[in-house]
Amino acid sequence: MGGILEGIRVVEVAAMAAAPSATVILADLGAEVIKVEPSSGDLWRYGHKVVPMPPSDVPYTTFIQNRTKKSVALNLNVPAAQEALHKLAATADVFLTNSPRQVQEKLKHTYEDIKAVNPKVIYAWVNGFGSQGPDKDAPGYDMTALYARTGLMEEMRPKGGDPAVLPASAGDLATATSLFSAVMTGLFHRERTGEGSKVSTSLMSNGLWINSSMLQSTLVGAPPIQKYRRTEWPNPVTAGTYKTRDDRFIIIVELNPANFENCLDALGADHLKGDERFSTPERRYQNHQVLFDEIQKIIGAHDLSAIAEILRKGHVNFSVTQTTEECTRDEHMIANGCFPEVEGTDGIRTVDSPIQIQAQGIDKVKPRKPPGIGEHTLSELMDLGYSEEDVRAMAEARAVGLPR
């Protein structure tokens, strides 16, 4: 079996998380991805050392962003390395970068630079704040451009509480899926027309898209959504979050009002059935505090495992608020292949990318160990026509990096 993108060659000039995560999705689906990075390596190779990330001797961040790729180390400040990059780009179907505009110009990998050596290339760019406007060249991370700037951070702030920090790379990974989609759209356009293109997305636009329900309400003149404490939630069986006896939480989400009675049946709340205060969605809203307190009383009398079993047997739409550690041993997630083992490691698992393909003779590529910095510099440059002596001379001149 082969990957559906087998034969697609990608050159990545990118660091950190959003852009490299998009190329991981491409690699998982069979594309050959060549990561171009400095001799010191992509900074996110050392993300596991950034406080307060969980301490580990295993550079775990690179398993998400750099697995299944090749690494070519180039010092793009040096003209000889820029020339090598252009030769690599000439062989690519996709050239993907998150370099700011000024860096692209300085290091000779703007769209115009790459298009000049490869007119049919799909040039993919992800940036912080978009390509227009006063902030187009401002630096942006997912925590700033996607989360804080777009209203999401304020929407997530609980009533009377402080803003919550975004989980590491969460916004980058969401943006990576958008960038992957943009690349595939560019490849589809080329398949139909034979023409290359420039495709792009931004962290800001993805944050706005994630927050689009609240933004759309504002755009039609609706007032801001009211903030509530957990125990004041006005729709107890639609996103009501309840605390169990052992201090865990579950969330119930029954959007269909017809399922209200079933929810009461599952909870054994016979005393609430037929109560006029809860007979319609409007009356449940008017009396939401009483209803929430009654449901909390029932759920609070059970440990998590017991109430989860009760709700499961009662076919209630709910979820346990799982910890990250619990996810890694979740039987259902494991059955869906969410944590495949990385080839070339001593049993390390990783997180599967979210795109699945079902077609005859097609399968996802098994994740391979992230490459060492510059692991493929020699072989890839020799494939471009450089001799081994040429490459070693370039290494002496610090234009390229070889494995340490």
Task: Describe the secondary-structure layout.
Blueprint: E1 9-13, H1 18-28, E2 32-37, H2 61-65, E3 70-74, H3 79-90, E4 94-97, H4 101-106, H5 111-117, E5 122-127, H6 142-148, H7 152-156, H8 170-193, E6 197-202, H9 203-210, H10 212-219, E7 238-243, E8 249-253, H11 260-267, H12 281-286, H13 288-299, H14 304-313, E9 318-320, H15 324-327, H16 331-335, H17 377-383, H18 388-396, E10 400-401
Parallel strand pairs: 1-2, 1-4, 2-3, 4-5, 5-6
Antiparallel strand pairs: 3-10, 7-8, 8-9
Helix pairs in contact: 1-8, 6-9
Organism: Pseudohalioglobus sediminis
InterPro entries: CoA-transferase_III_domain, CoA-Trfase_fam_III, CoA-Trfase_III_dom3_sf, CoA-Trfase_III_dom_1_sf
GO molecular function: CoA-transferase activity
